[in-house]
Specification:
The complex is a heterodimer. Chain A is of the alpha/beta class. Chain A is built from five helices and ten strands. Chain A folds into two domains: 33 residues, no CATH class; 125 residues, NAD(P)-binding Rossmann-like Domain (Rossmann fold, 3-Layer(aba) Sandwich), CATH 3.40.50.720. In chain A, α3 runs parallel beside α4. Chain A starts with 10 loop residues before the first strand and ends in a 6-residue tail after the last helix. Chain B is an alpha/beta fold. Chain B is globular, with a radius of gyration of 14 Å. Chain B contains five helices and five strands, in the order βαβαβαββαα. Classes of the chains: A alpha/beta, B alpha/beta. At the A-B interface, α2 and α5 of A face α3 of B.
């Protein structure tokens, strides 16, 4: 029988990208912890944005800028730009020299499985595909790699609706 | 009349009676900026009737966005006498908005409330 939700403080027993997935251990019991989009954003500090755009008319520019404005550390990933919103750009996820909590993707759906593999490779905690982007394969890769996963949802809408801020 | 800014304070007062069209938007949202002039144009054509046109900035009004379960923007909502008749994400052309207004006007709200009550119970 399902023992019900964990009581008391939960701790993550394994690294989030451990093959066994992120689990919460309470006493002698271990639970999978599936985070909501709100929890993923609230618990992330550093967000890498794959497909961040220099074009201010594109959502791949204005959405990450909005997240930056509310205090998250946003690292743009774009092989054709040196800097975006005054932040250094990296050509790939693997080039980022610090821990990334969340990988936020603005690329067409068919491009996302390799990005999911890279997100697993750098030890990110979650993968978030923007509104209109869906991929069963990326989902499978992310979940098998122990990452929390969101697809077809705008990160700036989630921030606004939940009134989340890091300021 | 241009669309009015709706807030948690004036929302009930402005949408509780008659027909109201509500556009959920944000300053950073490109598709919202493309839909906004269409919405404003239709609002301009309804200056003389009782239809209320309102805009909700989801960054400024998270309570309202959360209350109506907004998942993406722009989202258009049609309300009559405080009852939500339509709520869909994505911008739509002016003739569709006009059609929504006409359909809302033709509804028998007593029937709508009866149906809503019976499906809720």
């Amino acid at each position: 029988m399902w023992p019900g939700p964990p009581q008391g403080p939960a701790t993550c027993a394994f690294r989030a990208n451990d093959q066994r997935g992120c689990r919460a251990r309470v006493g002698r019991r271990t639970f999978f912890r599936v985070r909501t989009a709100e929890q993923i954003l609230a618990e992330s500090t550093t967000i890498a944005v794959v497909g961040a755009s220099r074009d201010p008319d594109k959502v791949a520019h204005s959405v990450p800028r909005q997240i930056l404005r509310y205090g998250w550390r946003v690292i743009p990933v774009n092989p054709y730009a040196d800097e975006l919103w005054g932040v250094r750009c990296y050509p790939t996820l693997a080039d980022i020299p610090e821990h990334v909590d969340l990988v936020n993707v603005f690329r067409p759906s068919p491009d996302t499985p390799p990005i999911a593999r890279q997100a697993v490779g750098i030890g990110a905690n979650a993968l978030w595909l923007q509104q209109g982007i869906v991929s069963a394969e990326a989902r499978e890769i992310a979940i098998a790699g122990g990452l929390d996963y969101v697809e077809d949802h705008c990160i700036a809408v989630e921030r606004a609706v939940r009134a989340l801020t890091k300021l | 009349m241009a669309a009015q800014e709706l807030t948690a304070t004036n929302f009930e007062e402005l949408t509780g009676d008659g027909i109201a069209l509500v556009d959920f938007w944000a300053e950073w949202c490109g598709p919202c900026h493309r839909f906004s002039p269409v919405f404003e144009d239709v609002a301009g054509k309804h200056q003389d009737d009782e239809v209320v046109f309102g805009k909700i900035d989801i960054d400024a009004q998270p309570e309202l966005a959360q209350r109506f379960g907004v998942q993406s923007i722009p989202t258009l909502m049609v309300v009559r006498d405080g009852v939500i008749l339509y709520q869909q994400p994505g911008g739509i052309p002016a003739p569709y908005i006009e059609s929504l207004i006409e359909q809302a006007q033709q509804l028998d709200m007593d029937e709508v409330r009866k149906t809503a009550e019976s499906s809720a119970s």
